[in-house]
Amino acid sequence: MASYKKRVESALGNADIRRRLVRIAHRVLRSEEDSEDAAHDAVVQALAAADRFRSDAQVTTWMHRIAVNASLMALRKSQRAGRHLGALGAAGVAGLPVSWAMGGQSSSVEASFAEHDSRTRVREAVAQLPEEYRDVIERCVYEEETAEEAARALKLTPSAVRTRVGRARKRLQNLLSEEVKVAA
């Protein structure tokens, strides 16, 4: 168990991972200040819970979830305190499209379900990709890492990461278009 705690502590000492935690928090909170605070809270929580880290999990995935939870807790706390949330932050938490927050047309319930269904289909298609493509999509798209950050983590060159992302997107496009043909 001590080796897992060392893995967690080592990862939390990494500046790239700390920046990623801030980016994750910023997607929820839409404020630099609050994002920094939430990322710090996530680091503290991760260190406190290091003994509960599952050995079969990746440290970065585990910390991603902790950062999301810390951000949501900060958001709830600010709402209880009566702090004004920006429209973008409120829309993001509610799962509404950014166009709604920016004064665009509000989407219908059907459109919201269709959007959720599309995201689900894409995630299922990503799960069908070979591991080498799935890894780069998860890092570069879902975790919003740069090609350089993903390359370091995956022990690849940045150009190899970009190539794999391109190939993965092409495969996803094929998988999703086949799904549409089958449904029609």
CATH class of the largest domain: Mainly Alpha
Number of helices: 10
Sketch the topology as an H/E string, one letter per element: HHHHHHHHHH
Q: Which bin fits the share of residues in helices? A: over 70%
CATH superfamily of the largest domain: RNA polymerase sigma factor, region 2, helix turn helix motif
Mean pLDDT: 76
Report the uncertain regions. Answer: 83-107
Q: What count of domains describes the coordinates?
A: 2
Overall strand count: 0
Q: Based on the coordinates given, report the CATH architecture of the largest domain.
A: Orthogonal Bundle
The rough form would be described as globular
**Largest sheet descriptor:** none
Instruction: Write the CATH fold name of the largest domain.
Output: Rna Polymerase Sigma Factor, Chain: A
How large is the radius of gyration? Answer: 18 Å
User: What is the SS-derived class?
Assistant: mainly alpha
| Distance linking N and C termini | 51 Å
Descriptive account of the structure:
The chain is mainly α. The protein folds into two domains: 1-95, Rna Polymerase Sigma Factor, Chain: A (Orthogonal Bundle); 107-184, Arc Repressor Mutant, subunit A (Orthogonal Bundle), CATH 1.10.10.10. The protein is 78% helix and 0% strand. It has helices spanning 2-12, 15-29, 32-48, 59-80, 87-94, 98-101, 109-128, 131-142, 147-154, 158-183. Helix 2 packs across helix 3 (32-48), helix 2 packs parallel to helix 4 (59-80) and helix 8 crosses helix 10 (158-183). It is globular and about 50 Å long. It starts with a helix and ends with a helix. 22% of the residues are buried. Residues 83-107 have low confidence and may be disordered.
